[in-house]
């Protein structure tokens, strides 16, 4: 039986929410092994003088833990 863990990450992009999600998943895959899925918990924008500066998402990333040896 597998055991999974969920971790929360915040990621951003100056282009779009979709790009922010892809940036977060790419980064999670560099650090975490066995990433199985993710879901968007929240999304927001940062503004500067009325213009969108950054799209941000909070992702819940699920990854399967390695079996203990």
Termini separation (Å)? 14 Å
Number of helices: 1
Largest sheet: 3 strands, antiparallel
Q: Which percent range describes the beta-strand content?
A: over 45%
Name the strands of the widest sheet in spatial order: 1-3-2
Number of strand elements: 3
Following the backbone from N to C, one meets helices and strands in this order, namely EHEE
Averaged pLDDT, please?
94
- The gyration radius over C-alpha positions equals 14 Å
What overall geometry do the principal axes of the alpha carbons give? elongated
Low-confidence stretches: none
| Main structural class | alpha+beta
Describe the protein's architecture and organization.
The chain has a 3-stranded antiparallel β-sheet with strand order 1-3-2, covered by helices on one side. With 69 residues, it is of the alpha+beta class. The chain contains 1 helix and 3 strands; from the N terminus they run βαββ. Helices cover 22% and strands 55% of the residues.
What's this model, at a glance?
This protein is an alpha+beta fold and 69 residues long. It has 1 helix and 3 strands, in the order βαββ.
SSE diagram, text form:
Elements: E1 4-13, H1 17-31, E2 35-48, E3 51-64
Antiparallel strand pairs: 1-3, 2-3
Supply database-style keywords.
69 residues; 3-stranded antiparallel beta sheet; 1 helix
């Amino acid at each position: 039986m597998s055991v999974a863990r969920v971790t929360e990450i915040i990621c951003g992009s100056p282009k779009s929410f979709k790009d922010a999600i892809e940036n977060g998943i790419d980064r999670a895959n560099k650090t975490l092994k066995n990433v199985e899925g993710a879901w968007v918990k929240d999304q927001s924008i940062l503004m500067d003088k009325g213009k969108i500066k950054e799209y941000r998402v909070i992702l819940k990333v699920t990854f399967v833990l390695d079996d203990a040896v």
